[in-house]
Amino acid sequence: MKDKITRHIKIMYPNYSDEDISTFLNYDDINTQNLVKWKLQGHQDLKNALTDVETKYKDVKTLEKSVCDLHQTIIELSALIEMNDEIIDNIYDHVNDAQYFTEKANVDLIEARNIQKKTSKWMFYLTVTIIILILIIFFPIITKII
Q1: Is 83 domain-assigned?
Q2: Closest C-alpha to 16, from 45, 59, 37
Q3: How much is the average pLDDT of 49-65?
């Protein structure tokens, strides 16, 4: 009987030492009423422990859900960062292209200005030459008429 009671006490009160249990068992006034009271107290302690375990389980489940949500958020954030990284790379490429085209346009404008000067110069020479030819051709005709 004492072994059975000792096992029950160890199950209900795992923090009790063997000395505490033997003191209780060696107490002369062990009666049914004290044992029932002790068992009821142990039963209540087990209920409290079960309630604590259930509460901790719910907290762990809540924490697990929060961690899953956080993981999903991090994955979405990673995708956004990767997408923005591609956009930034595209912007960088467009800026470099714009710089290249601007420099090329400046060179083309300088070349066009030089071509325009040469063309204007040749147009002037051509116009003067045509006027001189017209004068040479029409000068004898005009002098004969007058």
Answers
A1: yes
A2: 45
A3: 90
**DSSP per-residue letters across 11-70:** HH-TT--HHHHHHHHH-TT--HHHHHHHHHHHHHHHHHHHHHHHHHHHHHHHHHHHHHHH
- Encode pLDDT of 106-142 as tens digits: 999 999 999 999 999 999 999 999 999 999 998 888 8
Residue 32 has pLDDT above 70, yes or no: no
- The answer as to whether 134 is a domain residue is yes
Question: Beta-strand (E) ranges in 43-145?
Answer: none
Buried/exposed 118-132: b ≥16 CB within 10 Å, e otherwise: eeeeeeeeeeeeeee
The number of distinct structural domains making up the chain is: 1
Q: What is the pTM of this model?
A: 0.41
Distance CA 43, CA 5 (A): 14
